[in-house]
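Title: Comparing notes on inverse folding

I've been comparing how different people in this forum approach sequence design from structure. To keep things fair, I'm posting one structure and asking everyone to reply with a full sequence. Here's the target:
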């Protein structure tokens, strides 16, 4: 806020302007739209409105998200801040009186194939490498498929290894007909068997690439 004082004298006009408060953020509505956001966070006082005007303030009050619910709350505040606004935020407890009022639906999975993954050895770059190599094989064979999901990648590798005039592997199936592993014969010993895992898909694809 600026204040101006004018001192008039014969032939002279002296203006004094107070700019001492101009470094403070102006939170008035026309300059900084305010949005109310409620949601879940890993820390912070329940039901208490907090004035969030920066990412650092957000992290100080509520921390960074640890699950999907907290991510929605966190990202909503970040979106307001990125648009030049101010968030009036309130943290909700996970156990609250309105919880039973939310509309929800329960799902049950069937025919689930267990996947055992050693995440110490598997990184997202590893999955990308499977995808990129698989796309190259499909392009070379003239197959127009874009297997982005891990399960779809596995099924595509099964098709490449077990179908066609000269299959290089045998499919090991479960009782419901799902391919749970690929068995690659070896001339000098027991067959190589790779299960339905990310690692198994990668190893099976390596043999397909070499064939």
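Reply #1:
Here's my take.
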């Amino acid at each position: 806020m600026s204040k101006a004082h004018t001192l008039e004298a014969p032939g002279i006009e002296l203006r004094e302007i107070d700019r001492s408060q101009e470094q403070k953020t102006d939170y008035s509505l026309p300059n900084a739209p305010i949005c109310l956001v409620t949601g879940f966070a890993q820390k912070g006082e329940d039901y208490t409105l907090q004035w969030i005007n920066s990412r650092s303030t957000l992290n100080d009050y509520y921390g960074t998200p640890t699950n999907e619910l907290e991510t929605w709350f966190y990202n909503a505040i970040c979106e307001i801040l990125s648009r030049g606004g101010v968030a009036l935020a309130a943290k909700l407890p996970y156990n609250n009186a309105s919880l039973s009022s939310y509309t929800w639906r329960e799902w049950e999975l069937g025919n689930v194939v267990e996947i055992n993954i050693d995440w110490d050895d598997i990184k997202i770059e590893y999955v990308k490498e499977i995808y990129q190599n698989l796309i190259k094989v499909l392009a070379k064979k003239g197959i127009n498929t874009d297997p982005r999901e891990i399960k779809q990648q596995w099924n595509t590798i099964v098709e490449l290894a077990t179908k066609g005039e000269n299959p290089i592997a045998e499919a090991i199936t479960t009782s419901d007909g799902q391919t749970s592993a690929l068995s690659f014969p070896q001339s000098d010993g027991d067959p190589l068997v790779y299960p339905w895992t990310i690692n198994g898909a990668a190893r099976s694809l390596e043999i397909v690439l070499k064939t």
